[in-house]
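Comment thread on ticket #2218

A.B. wrote:
> Attaching the input chain for the structure job we discussed in standup.
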Amino acid sequence: MTQLRDAYITGAGAFLPGLPVGNDQIEDRIGRIGGRPSLLGRRALQWNGVKTRHYALDADGRPTDSNAGMCAKAVRAALDDAGLGHADLDYLAAATTQGDYLVPGHGVTVHGELGGGALEVASFQSVCGSALMAAKAAWLNVRAGEHDVAAACAGEFSSRWFRPAFYEGTALVDAKGRLAAEADFLRFTLSDGAGAVVIEPAPRPLGLSLRIDHIDVVSLAGAFEPCMWAGAAAAEDRGDATHAWSQAGPAAAHAAGAIALLQDFELLKRVIRAWVGVYLKKVDEGRIRPEAVDWLLCHYSAQSLRDELMGLLERTAGAIPPEKWFSNLATVGNIGSASIWVILDELVKSGRLERGQKVLCVVPESGRALVGFMMLEAV
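C.D. wrote:
> Ran it. Output below, let me know if you need it in another format.
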């Protein structure tokens, strides 16, 4: 039996399109439904605590990049950080919530943007947790000796889905021109960008690398309906694929509001507790030791959600002190699947990470009650 190798993150990279966009500029970029400001936007911003974010849209709402293009730039940045070139890469795992195409997959689209010779690729489509799905594939390929230089990337171009044309003339806008709350909140919550990591079987000769100790991805989809979804017109249809948008055809689906991204905030409250339950089970099993964690990189969509998570954990054995939490949500926004790599990239380049420190990455996903964990050690 072949012995598995250790595997290390030797490079990290991020790409954030354009200049930071302040809260007062959001609707100048993504547009105003019916030409009027959102009634819920200010409330959403108070909830999420984001001050600036990035959009791959120019001042006139035209795209400046593609999802795959942003991912390719993040992969190049990660390879450069690792001291490697494009020709060194032999495995690429790409993740996203919504890619540039229905077909082909995100992985080959990113490879097309990267260019170069033949590669093995894999595509992972979920929501935020897809980043760790891609990372696990890259990590296991390196551990098994299949490849020596692997990259895992994740990217989002959420803002293009928030343009008025996705909502106007659909059932999501009422007779008074107001957009449904389950759609409007997300317009002020999600933003654009990409992140990537490079994984190798040995640490870099100079500087810090991060040994990957384990990656766990846990789905609780058997117990919950989708909490965030696109492709079903009505909430009662979201868990039944026979009611997906494709059954009605694209024109009818658009008119019914089935193309837009939607969130069930009441269900989210129950899903949060489910995430915490999975985490505490990992603690009970000894898979995660909170007292050994030096940095907690938890992807969360809102500052209020972080406060709720901390409140649920404060009287448990799984609590991690707030001074160990590292986040850049306020300055870069919620970039979905790309968030965990953009956070990790900022921590690594901050100079605050020290050899021997343990980094726990937690990525909850509200798509359908999924949560992922990655344990790293700086070496």
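A.B. wrote:
> Thanks. Noting for the ticket: The chain has a mean pLDDT of 94.
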